Amino acid sequence: MSELPSEWNNEAYVSLHLVQEMLRMAGLPARSGYSHWTPEFKVKVPRLTKNNLVIETEKEVDFLIEDYARYINFLVEVKAANTRINHDARVQLQTYLKYSNTRFGVLIDPFSVEIYEYTEWQLKLRCKHFIQHPERIQPIADFIKSFLDTVKMRTIAIHTSKGGVGKTTLVVNIAYELATQGNRVLVIDLDDQANASLSLGVNKADKFDNASSLEEFEQILESFKDRKEVVEFLKDYDLPNFNYREYIYPSTLNQILNKAGSPGKVDVLPSSYKTIDAALANLGGIREKRLDKALRQSDMANDYDYVVIDTPPSATTIASNGLYAAQYVLIPSQMEYLSVYGIRTPIKRAREVQEENGKRGMIIGIVPMMTEKNVKLHTTIKQLVQQTFKGMTIMPEIKRATAVGQASKARHPLSLYAEQNSGAGEVANQFFALTKEIVAIINQIESAVGI
């Protein structure tokens, strides 16, 4: 690169003509439904005085970028041509990441971009790009976007206002189908009945099955009292030294996925009888948005490709947390007369979230559950649903089958259960087709908005 004009020696000029343009071209505008910049972001850093007293000093980072679409926050520190990225700049970035509890940081000058990850108390270089010329911004923006796409996390809530429609069955099977495709999946169980947690093997289902007395049953429940789970996750995420991995448990499905050589996994942020609104009553701020904030501030997007959220069939604060955290919403429903009216409530809730907070709560479809081929009523109701909710996608249906109940009792996803039970093959294929359609719709939505 030839010598740059003197204006590139000014950090403000580099910020305006390189960094801010780069962010916009990477699909991260200053204020939108998908991203937000905080210039001169303040970080409180401890400092030891001459009298050996520890005091807090306030430092400023050039930008905090909140990427709502990917669930990533990252810091940007700008250097000029005459100061450049050097050892001191890297140490400074490490300090900012450590004390702001932010995982990713970007150092940029007119000659190069370095992206770092702060994890396990170390600053690790993730990738680097050499800038051919700071006025040719598109390749720089493509580099940033390419990195962000490697740590993108999608959140999907399964939401209904009526129990008994196969909501948890949908959660477990979608999670497993995504994992068999090599995706790292986190299931967040917000339902105090904890059926997803039980089905995925993290809530001592075998011990419950073998309990022979009320006393044994109560002892098992008592064992959850001090366990870190979803309620503690919602309460603790903004505490110093918060580590989200302490609240997450591997599902029993991971052993099967590992044996099959799949890089995918299904982990669980479990619930129990503790998952009630009263547990959040003494917290400040907007309690309905704690899960959304926790997912972003924990920077778990580096560990998961999809988050599938099992919401309770109610209008509680806990349920609202699932909607505010979900980019996408699926609504399962049986094809019965009353179901047409039951669908209205979850649609209304999701649309209210989207109107308030455009980056969340997009309904991608209604899933017809427990349908039957030869029952004319189901076909008629499906047509009525299409007419009543014009423009709403009707997803591939899941037909009624005894294999669904058998697989649920065995705590197996249908495609796994079908390997030993040939009669389960048809409905297993339906879950596969549904998951494939979900991914296709999300990809289409994200391609349209340039995410």
- Could you name the ranges where pLDDT drops below 50 across 5 or more consecutive residues? none
Tell me the overall shape.
Answer: globular
What's the CATH class label of the largest domain? Alpha Beta
Structural class: alpha/beta
Euclidean distance between termini CA atoms: 31 Å
CATH architecture of the largest domain: 3-Layer(aba) Sandwich
Question: SSE string, helix = H, strand = E?
Answer: HEEEHEEEHEHEHHHHEHEHEHEHEHEHHH
Whole-number tally of structural domains: 2
Largest sheet: 8 strands, mixed
User: What Rg, in angstroms, do the CA atoms define?
Assistant: 24 Å
Helix content: 25-40%
Fraction of residues in β-strands: 15-25%
CATH structural fold name of the largest domain: Rossmann fold
Total of helices: 16
Largest sheet: spatial strand order: 9-10-8-11-7-12-13-14
Describe this structure in words.
- With 451 residues, the chain is of the alpha/beta class.
- It starts with 10 loop residues before the first helix and ends with a helix.
- Strand 2 and strand 3 form a beta hairpin.
- 42% of the residues are buried.
- It is globular, with a radius of gyration of 24 Å.
- It has 16 helices and 14 strands.
- It has two domains: 145 residues, tt1808, chain A, CATH 3.90.1570.30; 296 residues, 3-Layer(aba) Sandwich (Rossmann fold), CATH 3.40.50.300.
Which helices and strands occur, and which strands form pairs?
Elements: H1 11-25, E1 35-48, E2 54-67, E3 72-78, H2 87-100, E4 104-108, E5 112-119, E6 122-130, H3 138-150, E7 154-158, H4 167-180, E8 184-189, H5 195-199, H6 205-210, H7 214-222, H8 230-236, E9 249-250, H9 253-259, E10 265-269, H10 290-297, E11 306-310, H11 317-325, E12 328-334, H12 337-356, E13 362-371, H13 376-388, E14 398-399, H14 402-410, H15 414-417, H16 425-449
Parallel strand pairs: 3-4, 7-11, 7-12, 8-10, 8-11, 12-13, 13-14
Antiparallel strand pairs: 1-2, 2-3, 4-5, 5-6, 9-10
Helix pairs in contact: 1-3, 4-16, 10-11
